[in-house]
Amino acid sequence: MSEQDRDLAQMQDDQHARHRRTQAVIQEVIDTVGRDAPGKEVGAVRTTLVQALAEQGVVDQPARWVDAVATELVAGNRYVEDPAEPGQFDDGRAGGDDPR
């Protein structure tokens, strides 16, 4: 189990809900910035990403993470910040429900 998974497992329900809302805001910002990012300079996309996150109240993101996101967006890739929770498929089935 990763450190992040342990941290999430120890959160109270209200903390978990707040975390999920923040993750949704971050993903929305990434998607918005990503629409215009392909082919631009990484530095410009990095600056736009940091500013857009700050406008939504999300500040002090790790520089390595911001660089990684900006690099992916410039390359034309969608960056998914928080994929479906472990053990779930896109259609909401539990991990044990996989028919394979």
Number of strands: 0
Structural class of the helix and strand makeup? mainly alpha
Q: Helical region count?
A: 4
C-alpha geometry: elongated
Main sheet characteristics: none
Sheet-strand content, in percent, reads under 5%
The radius of gyration is: 16 Å
Q: What percent of the residues sit in helical stretches (DSSP H or I)?
A: 55-70%
Order of helices and strands: HHHH
Average per-residue pLDDT, rounded, comes to 81
Low-confidence stretches: 85-100
N-to-C span? 24 Å
Q: How would you portray this structure in words?
A:
This protein is mainly α and 100 residues long. It is built from 4 helices and no strands. It has helices at 3-10, 13-35, 42-55, 63-74. It is elongated, with a radius of gyration of 16 Å. Residues 85-100 have low confidence and may be disordered.
TL;DR?
With 100 residues, the protein is mainly alpha-helical. 57% of the residues lie in helices and 0% in strands. The protein starts with a helix and ends in a 26-residue tail after the last helix.
Secondary structure layout plus pairing:
Layout: H1 3-10, H2 13-35, H3 42-55, H4 63-74
Helix pairs in contact: 2-3, 2-4, 3-4
